[in-house]
Amino acid sequence: MARPSGLGRGLSALLEDSPTAASGSSDKGIRTIAVDKIGPNPDQPRRTFDQESLGELAASISERGVLQPILVRPVGDRFQIIAGERRWRASQMAQLHEIPAIVRDSDDAAVAEMAIVENVQREDLNALEEARAYAALAENFEYSQGDIAKKVGKSRSHVANLVRLLDLPEHVQQALMEGFISMGHARALIGHPDASKLVDVVIGDELSVRDTEALVRGDRAPKSGKAATPGGGGQTNPDIAALERQLGDLLGLKVSVSHGANGGKVQLGYRTLDQLDMICQRLSGEAI
User: What angle do CA 151, 156, 160 make, to 5 degrees?
Assistant: First the structure.
Protein backbone atom coordinates (compact mmCIF):
# COMPACT_ATOMS: atom_id res chain seq x y z
CA MET A 1 0.00 0.00 0.00
CA ALA A 2 1.38 3.39 -0.93
CA ARG A 3 2.15 5.64 1.99
CA PRO A 4 0.15 8.89 2.08
CA SER A 5 2.10 12.04 1.45
CA GLY A 6 2.25 15.31 3.36
CA LEU A 7 1.19 16.18 6.85
CA GLY A 8 -1.29 13.34 7.20
CA ARG A 9 1.66 11.11 8.12
CA GLY A 10 2.17 13.06 11.35
CA LEU A 11 5.49 13.80 13.00
CA SER A 12 7.41 11.38 10.79
CA ALA A 13 6.65 13.70 7.89
CA LEU A 14 8.21 16.58 9.76
CA LEU A 15 11.54 14.98 10.48
CA GLU A 16 12.23 12.66 7.53
CA ASP A 17 15.19 13.40 5.28
CA SER A 18 13.06 12.86 2.19
CA PRO A 19 12.78 15.98 0.02
CA THR A 20 9.09 15.15 -0.51
CA ALA A 21 8.24 15.02 3.18
CA ALA A 22 5.77 17.88 2.89
CA SER A 23 4.25 19.77 0.02
CA GLY A 24 5.88 23.11 -0.66
CA SER A 25 9.13 22.09 1.07
CA SER A 26 12.50 20.45 0.46
CA ASP A 27 15.17 19.35 2.91
CA LYS A 28 18.81 20.40 2.90
CA GLY A 29 19.90 17.72 5.37
CA ILE A 30 20.99 17.86 9.00
CA ARG A 31 23.53 20.48 10.02
CA THR A 32 24.77 22.16 13.16
CA ILE A 33 23.63 25.77 13.56
CA ALA A 34 24.57 28.42 16.09
CA VAL A 35 21.77 28.84 18.63
CA ASP A 36 21.85 32.63 18.30
CA LYS A 37 21.29 32.36 14.53
CA ILE A 38 17.90 30.74 15.13
CA GLY A 39 14.65 32.49 16.02
CA PRO A 40 11.12 31.31 16.85
CA ASN A 41 8.25 31.33 14.41
CA PRO A 42 6.13 34.42 15.26
CA ASP A 43 3.03 32.43 14.25
CA GLN A 44 3.90 29.47 16.48
CA PRO A 45 0.56 28.32 17.95
CA ARG A 46 2.07 27.40 21.29
CA ARG A 47 2.41 30.48 23.51
CA THR A 48 3.12 29.03 26.95
CA PHE A 49 6.14 26.94 27.96
CA ASP A 50 6.27 25.34 31.39
CA GLN A 51 9.50 26.55 32.99
CA GLU A 52 9.92 23.52 35.26
CA SER A 53 9.56 21.15 32.32
CA LEU A 54 12.00 23.26 30.29
CA GLY A 55 14.48 23.11 33.15
CA GLU A 56 14.27 19.31 33.23
CA LEU A 57 14.84 19.15 29.48
CA ALA A 58 17.78 21.56 29.77
CA ALA A 59 19.35 19.30 32.41
CA SER A 60 18.94 16.30 30.12
CA ILE A 61 20.44 18.22 27.19
CA SER A 62 23.40 19.29 29.34
CA GLU A 63 24.11 15.64 30.08
CA ARG A 64 23.22 13.93 26.80
CA GLY A 65 22.99 16.66 24.18
CA VAL A 66 20.12 17.29 21.78
CA LEU A 67 19.03 13.83 20.64
CA GLN A 68 16.50 14.94 18.01
CA PRO A 69 17.27 17.76 15.55
CA ILE A 70 14.92 20.71 15.38
CA LEU A 71 13.35 21.69 12.07
CA VAL A 72 14.09 25.16 10.64
CA ARG A 73 13.81 27.11 7.42
CA PRO A 74 16.23 29.75 6.10
CA VAL A 75 15.07 33.38 6.40
CA GLY A 76 17.72 35.73 5.07
CA ASP A 77 20.98 34.96 6.88
CA ARG A 78 19.12 33.45 9.85
CA PHE A 79 16.85 30.48 10.47
CA GLN A 80 13.26 30.30 11.69
CA ILE A 81 11.98 27.36 13.73
CA ILE A 82 9.30 25.20 12.14
CA ALA A 83 9.25 22.51 14.84
CA GLY A 84 11.27 22.07 18.03
CA GLU A 85 11.09 25.45 19.76
CA ARG A 86 11.01 23.75 23.17
CA ARG A 87 14.33 21.98 22.44
CA TRP A 88 15.82 25.27 21.22
CA ARG A 89 14.73 27.10 24.38
CA ALA A 90 16.08 24.31 26.60
CA SER A 91 19.38 24.37 24.68
CA GLN A 92 19.70 28.06 25.49
CA MET A 93 19.08 27.29 29.17
CA ALA A 94 21.75 24.59 28.95
CA GLN A 95 24.10 27.24 27.48
CA LEU A 96 24.73 25.32 24.27
CA HIS A 97 26.24 27.35 21.46
CA GLU A 98 25.10 25.08 18.62
CA ILE A 99 22.18 22.75 17.96
CA PRO A 100 21.52 20.08 15.31
CA ALA A 101 18.82 21.07 12.84
CA ILE A 102 17.17 19.90 9.65
CA VAL A 103 17.05 22.83 7.24
CA ARG A 104 14.01 22.84 4.99
CA ASP A 105 12.77 25.28 2.37
CA SER A 106 9.08 25.66 3.23
CA ASP A 107 6.40 28.17 2.31
CA ASP A 108 4.27 29.91 4.93
CA ALA A 109 1.34 27.51 4.58
CA ALA A 110 3.53 24.44 5.07
CA VAL A 111 5.22 26.03 8.10
CA ALA A 112 1.88 26.86 9.71
CA GLU A 113 0.58 23.35 9.11
CA MET A 114 3.68 21.60 10.43
CA ALA A 115 3.83 23.76 13.55
CA ILE A 116 0.24 22.86 14.38
CA VAL A 117 0.69 19.16 13.59
CA GLU A 118 3.74 18.92 15.83
CA ASN A 119 2.08 20.60 18.79
CA VAL A 120 -1.31 18.90 18.44
CA GLN A 121 0.14 15.41 18.07
CA ARG A 122 2.40 15.98 21.06
CA GLU A 123 -0.61 17.42 22.97
CA ASP A 124 1.44 20.54 23.75
CA LEU A 125 -1.29 23.09 23.01
CA ASN A 126 -4.00 24.17 25.39
CA ALA A 127 -7.52 24.41 23.96
CA LEU A 128 -7.36 28.13 23.13
CA GLU A 129 -3.93 27.91 21.49
CA GLU A 130 -5.22 25.07 19.34
CA ALA A 131 -8.38 27.04 18.50
CA ARG A 132 -6.38 30.12 17.49
CA ALA A 133 -4.11 28.00 15.33
CA TYR A 134 -7.08 26.52 13.47
CA ALA A 135 -8.63 29.97 13.04
CA ALA A 136 -5.35 31.28 11.63
CA LEU A 137 -5.23 28.47 9.06
CA ALA A 138 -8.77 29.28 8.01
CA GLU A 139 -8.16 33.03 7.82
CA ASN A 140 -4.68 33.12 6.33
CA PHE A 141 -4.84 30.15 3.95
CA GLU A 142 -8.60 29.81 3.40
CA TYR A 143 -8.79 26.26 4.73
CA SER A 144 -12.22 24.87 5.54
CA GLN A 145 -12.76 23.16 8.89
CA GLY A 146 -12.85 19.87 6.99
CA ASP A 147 -9.44 20.64 5.46
CA ILE A 148 -8.00 21.46 8.88
CA ALA A 149 -9.43 18.29 10.41
CA LYS A 150 -7.69 16.17 7.74
CA LYS A 151 -4.40 18.02 8.22
CA VAL A 152 -4.24 17.44 11.98
CA GLY A 153 -5.94 14.07 12.14
CA LYS A 154 -8.92 15.28 14.18
CA SER A 155 -12.66 15.16 13.57
CA ARG A 156 -14.40 18.12 11.96
CA SER A 157 -16.61 18.49 15.05
CA HIS A 158 -13.49 18.72 17.25
CA VAL A 159 -12.15 21.56 15.12
CA ALA A 160 -15.53 23.33 15.03
CA ASN A 161 -16.04 23.07 18.80
CA LEU A 162 -12.58 24.47 19.52
CA VAL A 163 -12.92 27.39 17.13
CA ARG A 164 -16.22 28.32 18.80
CA LEU A 165 -14.28 28.93 22.03
CA LEU A 166 -12.93 32.09 20.41
CA ASP A 167 -16.45 33.55 20.56
CA LEU A 168 -16.26 33.59 24.37
CA PRO A 169 -15.48 36.85 26.20
CA GLU A 170 -11.85 37.40 27.16
CA HIS A 171 -12.64 36.89 30.85
CA VAL A 172 -14.01 33.39 30.17
CA GLN A 173 -11.12 32.53 27.86
CA GLN A 174 -8.67 33.56 30.59
CA ALA A 175 -10.46 31.34 33.13
CA LEU A 176 -10.15 28.42 30.71
CA MET A 177 -6.50 29.19 29.99
CA GLU A 178 -5.64 29.30 33.70
CA GLY A 179 -7.48 26.06 34.46
CA PHE A 180 -10.31 27.52 36.57
CA ILE A 181 -12.86 25.94 34.21
CA SER A 182 -12.75 23.00 31.84
CA MET A 183 -13.47 22.75 28.15
CA GLY A 184 -16.94 21.45 29.02
CA HIS A 185 -17.69 24.48 31.20
CA ALA A 186 -16.50 26.83 28.47
CA ARG A 187 -18.62 25.17 25.78
CA ALA A 188 -21.70 25.49 27.99
CA LEU A 189 -21.12 29.26 28.25
CA ILE A 190 -20.69 29.90 24.52
CA GLY A 191 -23.29 32.31 23.21
CA HIS A 192 -24.67 33.38 26.59
CA PRO A 193 -24.90 37.18 26.85
CA ASP A 194 -23.75 37.13 30.49
CA ALA A 195 -20.99 34.53 30.10
CA SER A 196 -18.44 36.78 31.83
CA LYS A 197 -20.63 37.00 34.94
CA LEU A 198 -21.67 33.36 34.88
CA VAL A 199 -18.10 32.09 34.82
CA ASP A 200 -17.50 33.75 38.20
CA VAL A 201 -20.47 31.85 39.58
CA VAL A 202 -19.16 28.60 38.07
CA ILE A 203 -15.76 29.13 39.70
CA GLY A 204 -17.08 30.39 43.03
CA ASP A 205 -19.60 27.57 43.44
CA GLU A 206 -17.30 24.94 41.91
CA LEU A 207 -20.06 23.86 39.55
CA SER A 208 -19.86 20.71 37.48
CA VAL A 209 -20.37 20.91 33.73
CA ARG A 210 -23.93 19.63 34.15
CA ASP A 211 -24.67 22.25 36.82
CA THR A 212 -23.17 24.91 34.57
CA GLU A 213 -25.48 23.87 31.75
CA ALA A 214 -28.43 24.13 34.16
CA LEU A 215 -27.25 27.57 35.29
CA VAL A 216 -27.07 28.74 31.68
CA ARG A 217 -30.63 27.51 31.10
CA GLY A 218 -31.79 29.30 34.25
CA ASP A 219 -32.72 26.01 35.96
CA ARG A 220 -30.23 26.38 38.80
CA ALA A 221 -29.62 29.11 41.38
CA PRO A 222 -26.07 29.78 42.60
CA LYS A 223 -25.11 28.71 46.13
CA SER A 224 -22.79 31.59 46.91
CA GLY A 225 -23.16 35.36 47.19
CA LYS A 226 -23.20 35.56 43.40
CA ALA A 227 -26.90 35.69 42.65
CA ALA A 228 -28.53 34.72 39.38
CA THR A 229 -30.56 37.21 37.40
CA PRO A 230 -34.05 36.24 36.12
CA GLY A 231 -32.80 35.51 32.62
CA GLY A 232 -30.29 32.94 33.82
CA GLY A 233 -27.42 35.43 33.84
CA GLY A 234 -25.17 35.98 36.80
CA GLN A 235 -24.72 39.11 38.85
CA THR A 236 -21.68 39.28 41.12
CA ASN A 237 -22.17 40.75 44.59
CA PRO A 238 -20.52 44.19 44.22
CA ASP A 239 -18.83 44.02 47.65
CA ILE A 240 -17.35 40.62 46.87
CA ALA A 241 -16.28 41.78 43.41
CA ALA A 242 -14.54 44.81 44.95
CA LEU A 243 -12.78 42.57 47.48
CA GLU A 244 -11.64 40.22 44.70
CA ARG A 245 -10.21 43.13 42.73
CA GLN A 246 -8.46 44.54 45.80
CA LEU A 247 -6.87 41.23 46.72
CA GLY A 248 -6.01 40.54 43.09
CA ASP A 249 -4.24 43.89 42.74
CA LEU A 250 -2.38 43.29 46.00
CA LEU A 251 -1.17 39.80 45.11
CA GLY A 252 -0.95 40.09 41.33
CA LEU A 253 -3.04 36.89 41.08
CA LYS A 254 -6.58 35.92 40.13
CA VAL A 255 -8.66 35.85 43.34
CA SER A 256 -12.12 34.33 43.68
CA VAL A 257 -14.19 34.81 46.84
CA SER A 258 -17.36 32.82 47.51
CA HIS A 259 -19.52 33.62 50.51
CA GLY A 260 -22.72 32.12 51.84
CA ALA A 261 -24.75 31.70 55.00
CA ASN A 262 -22.39 29.02 56.32
CA GLY A 263 -19.14 30.78 55.48
CA GLY A 264 -17.12 30.68 52.30
CA LYS A 265 -13.69 30.39 50.78
CA VAL A 266 -10.99 32.37 49.02
CA GLN A 267 -9.32 30.84 45.97
CA LEU A 268 -5.96 32.02 44.62
CA GLY A 269 -4.98 31.11 41.08
CA TYR A 270 -1.33 30.84 40.06
CA ARG A 271 0.28 30.07 36.70
CA THR A 272 3.92 29.43 37.65
CA LEU A 273 5.85 27.83 40.48
CA ASP A 274 7.35 31.22 41.27
CA GLN A 275 3.87 32.57 41.96
CA LEU A 276 3.10 29.55 44.16
CA ASP A 277 6.33 30.14 46.06
CA MET A 278 5.33 33.78 46.56
CA ILE A 279 1.96 32.69 47.98
CA CYS A 280 3.66 30.26 50.39
CA GLN A 281 6.09 32.92 51.55
CA ARG A 282 3.34 35.43 52.23
CA LEU A 283 1.21 32.90 54.10
CA SER A 284 4.18 31.82 56.22
CA GLY A 285 5.26 35.41 56.92
CA GLU A 286 8.67 34.99 55.25
CA ALA A 287 10.33 38.00 53.62
CA ILE A 288 10.02 38.06 49.83
Answer: 110
